[in-house]
Amino acid sequence: MLAYLSQGYRVGEHPVRFVPHLSAVSVMTMGIHNLAPAAAGRGWQAFNMAAVVLALAALASLIIVLLTKWAGGDPWTGFDWIAMLCLPAAFLMMGGSVLHAVSRRRRL
């Protein structure tokens, strides 16, 4: 409890609200350092942003292809390739991010 108070927390404000399955006794015995979630590294943030950019690029190219086809035109073949490559890559990257988040959450 002294470690809890020495961190500058008051008794009313405690990060236990993020961990509802813990009792007050187990929280006091665990200490404050075990409850704080680990911050995501910049590498994972960049990885997630790259996945989002790839997904948006694939979505934009599919929209361009659809609009061009509806207008009666013949879209550039590169838009099809962008969608065929970027969409599965973004899906796999986001799946990897979810697995990383789950493994990080289990280590808490």
Describe the structure using short key phrases.
single chain, rod-shaped, 0% strand, 4 helices, 108 residues, mainly alpha
What report would you give on this structure?
This protein is mainly alpha-helical. It has 4 helices and no strands. The protein has helices spanning 2-6, 24-30, 42-70, 77-106. The mean pLDDT is 80.
Summarize this entry quickly.
It contains four helices and no strands. The protein is mostly helical and 108 residues long. Helix 3 (42-70) packs antiparallel against helix 4.
Would you spell out the secondary-structure blueprint of this structure?
Layout: H1 2-6, H2 24-30, H3 42-70, H4 77-106
Helix pairs in contact: 3-4
Quick one: overall form? rod-shaped
Q: What share of residues is helical?
A: 55-70%
Low-confidence stretches: none
- Strand coverage percent: under 5%
Q: Which structural class best describes the helix and strand composition?
A: mainly alpha
